[in-house]
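I have a small job for you when you get a moment. Would you make up a two-line entry for one protein for me to read? No commentary is needed, just the two lines. Write everything out right here, beneath this request.
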Amino acid sequence: MRLQTIRHADNRTQAVLATDSRWLPLPATDVGELIRHTEWRGTVTDIRRTASADDYLEQGTLPLASVVTSPRKIVCCGHNYRAHIREMGRPEPEYPTLFAKFADTLAGPHDDIELPDIARQVDWEAELALVIGTTCRAVTSAQARDHIAGYTAANDISVRDWQRRTPQWLQGKAFDATTPLGPAMVTADEIDPADGLPITCTVNGEQVQIGFTDDLVFDPAHLVSYISQFTTLAPGDVILTGTPGGVGAAAVPPRYLSEGDTITVDIERIGRLRNSIRFLPHDAYITRDKELAAYVEH
């Protein structure tokens, strides 16, 4: 099953089932809300069985939003691909290196990534992400597999100069709307990262990253199990599993993104993220959204 979230002209979002070249609208604002309902699979099956041709939309007629728009938690794992660990000159970790993001870091799979000009060293990180399907607390790795609703792609755009200001990475990982997520969540019964799905990243058409999802030190089930030991994971929560080798920070000399650069992330059987970088003067950045401007004024 391939689920996406579309964005209507009035900025309202809606979950859809992607079938061939069509979308079937579903009764949820996004994929995260859909899977919070215990019987969501049956609901989708019933809607599909009873839908008429008029109920469908043509794919591509509306833009895609982040596949999950408001997760309770976004937990990310760093240093998790063996090739990336080697290029960064680090030993293979005994435990997952974890950090968190906020829901407002998420962006659509084709959105421009707008950053303030205080961000100097902006890097790419192609990642496999998973979406939690059922609440889990202190589960084993074997049990964790049953709690994964599906898999999607992410780009953990990282502002390295801010990330390196302290030993804590948060400030370099949590700029607003800098983590594209999508274009679809493919349900876990249809794909298995242990099969070694190719994951690539290109910048302006030049391949900079290639890896395979069986190169993870800590696989998705292990991450779900480990994280669930200290915090409850709920339906719609998102876990980013790490990036392969080839990040800009590891290049010699280091390479960072510039105005207008286009970054494309592909994961086989999941799909493609394609986003362009835009830098805004800081004043323009903080007033680009009327709601944000009103918040700042108060």
The chain has nine helices and 18 strands. The chain has a mean pLDDT of 94. The longest helix spans residues 40-50. The chain has two domains: 2-58, 74-297.
